[in-house]
């Protein structure tokens, strides 16, 4: 997970996404992988990030573990938002300072300026 490492910043994560170009790259669907990953995800950050990139299919709250076994529709939505949406061009923005970290060709530039270290 990327975070804002500017000296003195308290709220380092999540970074807000300001997309300019989003691409979708198809990835093989693996429900077992998704079931293991969901506990490691900051759900609100994922939902906010997906919505900022125009994907609104995720629920506000992660489902219960028991639901994951029977809800393939949810798992496919989770899969799409987690693995197939890619920020190709845009910015990641620190919510505390407003500092924008540019993303070019899918690669974020998180280098800090000398006065931010």
UniProtKB/TrEMBL annotation:
CDD domains per the UniProt record, alphabetical: Trm112-like
Pfam families assigned: Trm112p (PF03966)
Family: Belongs to the TRM112 family.
Record-given protein name: Multifunctional methyltransferase subunit TRM112-like protein At1g78190
Organism, scientific name: Camelina sativa (False flax)
